[in-house]
Design a protein that fits this description.
single chain, about 650 residues, mainly alpha
């Protein structure tokens, strides 16, 4: 479980999630946060799943996640009852349910992205049969299925192109090269056209050249058709010759054959054919299928470099060493009975290989016989085409012509030669069977000799095997003792490590406490030294020393501050006493300002109505009032200065 959580945390901290979790913070997440992380991973696989689960009902969230997990072919562990538990755990965000899902998704993200992409186009919509009765719906459904099949084909082609090793850069280079060649050809055609235009009757000559090209193409087509017809004729002639040869052989076999020999030959042919059909051909077919499958796999894989080949060679060497080790272990564990069986198996394999070799020789002989028969028929046809008759001796020709059976001697010779070849093949079969029986006898005698020779070795091997079992049992006991001792030592080591860790922490605490105490002692020493100096200065009879004392300095500062406070209190008292007159003076100044503003307005209004003398009288009255107000103000200011700023 810890490895699973570590894998999940490592992948969530990478791109594209970048969560910055550790094992503790991830394990302490709430169920809603776990569900949101699961939804983020599903959204990375299928972008349609980007949802804030806080804004979605829990039932809808579980249904959506279950449907996507079903599309991705996730199989929860357990049976049907566990499936209900899985659904409930997915709804409530249970860790035992969410962790395996996250681990499975993060292991195969790229594969699941591809599967989710394909599911958008390949999940077939089931249309009820009653709706398919409508022609429009049926046609639409048929088009839908055709488009789905086309998508499958295009996707396969796209994947093959991706894995084929072709790069877009190479294709672009090829296209650019082809375009350059096209431009060169166009330019060349243009130059040729310009050169031809200077020739007289060039249109007629071009037309004749075009007709010549068409006739040459037609001639090539007719020659190809003629060759095909010749090949068909040749194959037909060969089939006719084979049928004729079979007819001749059957007539010859029926003319001078006994029922016993026919039955024996038929039985041999049946055995041979059954062996070829049941044993040889299936093995060859299976080997060809394996080879074809291997070649298809090689073709479908991308092009491999030198590093890939080196890696494959190293893997092959590792597998070969593992196979050799397993074979050695198997040989060490083999019983005497298995040793006997291995000998019989080896003998049977040798016999089967010899049987296959003889069957191949027989097949080659038959093929050779068939090829000779075909060659004979070809030669016969050639002689017939040459002079219309078969090549015979002079006497035989005349006798056969007289008897009216021209060609009988040649046919007789051919039948005798074919029967001789057939007898050779049968004799070869008999020799093969005799050789095989003799080989079996020799092998049995050899096996008995080897058994008698290996009997003391087997007896000694049994003793050694028993000793090996005893040693193995003793080794297992020692190993169990070692494991128990190692476990005890491991537990003691872990306890000692814990004690050492605790003592180290205690040592660090004591060390920090020591440094703190040392600093406090130094501070106290400094304070003590200052107190001692202060006492000496205070007790000293020297006035200069007393003045340097901190007590004297503090006393002086206290006195100065007390005097300053006394002055400030007196000043505060004076301000309080003069507050009323000052406020009255301020009111008088405001009234004076209003009066002057009023005089100004009056003066402006009466300027056009009154005479100059009247204006002067008003102006003089205003000035007198102004000077009177100024005099009162000056008197108040003098009183204020006397109160606040005494000499």
């Amino acid at each position: 479980m810890s490895d699973q959580i570590k894998f999940i945390v490592d992948n969530l901290n990478k791109e594209p999630f970048r969560k910055n979790y550790n094992l503790i913070t991830f394990d302490s997440l709430e169920p809603m946060q776990l569900l949101q992380i699961l939804n983020d991973v599903l959204a990375e696989i299928d972008p349609k799943q980007v949802v804030d689960i806080r804004e979605e009902m829990p039932e809808h969230t579980a249904k959506r996640m279950l449907s996507l997990l079903g599309i991705l072919k996730y199989k929860p562990p357990g049976n049907a009852t566990d499936m209900s538990t899985f659904r409930q755990g997915l709804v409530i965000g249970s860790k035992p349910v969410i962790y395996p899902v996250l681990h499975w998704l993060l292991q195969r993200t790229n594969e699941l992205k591809k599967r989710a992409y394909l599911a958008r186009f390949l999940i077939k919509l089931e249309v009820p049969s009653e709706f398919l009765q409508d022609e429009t719906v049926a046609d639409t459904n048929k088009q839908y299925e055709e488009l789905m099949e086309a998508f499958k084909t295009l996707h396969k082609e796209c994947e093959q192109l991706k894995t084929s090793g072709f790069s877009t850069a190479e294709i672009r280079r090829d296209i650019s090269a082809m375009e350059d060649e096209k431009d060169q050809l166009i330019k060349r055609v243009e130059r040729l056209k310009k050169r031809v235009e200077t020739v007289q009757n060039h249109q007629r000559m071009l037309k004749i050249a075009r007709q010549l090209r068409v006739e040459k193409e037609r001639e090539e087509f007719l020659a190809q058709q003629k060759q095909e017809q010749k090949n068909q004729l040749f194959h037909a002639v060969q089939r006719l010759q084979r049928v004729q040869n079979q007819l001749k052989s059957m007539r010859h076999a029926a003319a001078d054959a006994k029922p016993e020999s026919l039955m024996k030959r038929l039985e041999e042919e049946i055995k041979f054919n059954s062996y070829m059909v049941t044993e040889k051909f299936p093995k060859e077919l299976e080997s060809k299928k394996k080879e074809l499958h291997f070649l298809q796999k090689v073709v479908s894989e991308p092009a491999m470099g030198h590093s890939d080949l080196l890696e494959l060679e190293s893997n092959i060497n590792e597998i070969n060493t593992q196979i050799n080790q397993l074979i050695e272990k198997k040989m060490m564990r083999n019983e005497p009975i298995e040793g006997k069986l291995s000998l019989y198996r080896q003998q049977a394999s040798i016999i089967s290989r010899k049987k296959e070799a003889k069957a191949e020789e027989l097949q080659e002989a038959k093929e050779k016989l068939a090829s000779l028969e075909r060659e004979v028929s070809v030669k016969t046809n050639q002689t017939r085409e040459f002079d219309g008759t078969e090549v015979l001796k002079g006497d035989e020709r005349t006798i056969e012509e007289k008897k009216g059976i021209s060609g009988y001697s040649y046919t007789q010779e051919e039948l005798e030669r074919v029967s001789a070849l057939k007898s050779e093949v049968d004799e070869m079969k008999g020799r093969t069977l005799d050789d095989m029986s003799e080989m079996v006898k020799k092998l049995n005698s050899l096996v008995s000799e080897k058994k008698s020779a290996l009997a003391p070795v087997i007896k000694e091997l049994r003793q050694l095997r028993q000793k090996c079992q005893e040693l193995t049992q003793e080794c297992d006991e020692k190993k169990s003792q070692y494991d128990s001792c190692a476990a005890g030592l491991e537990s003691n080591r872990s306890k000692l490590e814990q004690e050492v860790r605790g003592l180290r922490e205690e040592c660090l605490q004591e060390e920090s406490r020591y440094h703190y105490t040392n600093c406090m002692i130094k501070n106290l020493e400094v304070q003590l030294r200052r107190a001692t100096d202060e006492m000496k200065a205070y007790v000293s009879s020297d006035q200069q020393e007393k003045r340097k004392a901190i007590r004297q300095q503090y006393t002086k500062n206290i006195t100065e501050q007390e005097n300053l406070g006394k002055k400030l209190r007196e000043k505060q008292k004076a301000v309080r006493e003069s507050h009323g007159p000052n406020m009255k003076q301020a009111k008088m100044w405001r009234d004076f300002e209003q009066l002057m503003e009023c005089k100004k307005q009056c003066f402006l209004k009466q300027q056009s109505q009154t005479s100059i003398g009247q204006v002067q009288g008003v102006y003089q009255n205003g000035l007198r009032a102004l000077f009177k107000g100024l005099w009162n103000s000056n008197r108040i200011l003098r009183n204020y200065k006397t109160l606040h700023f005494p000499l």
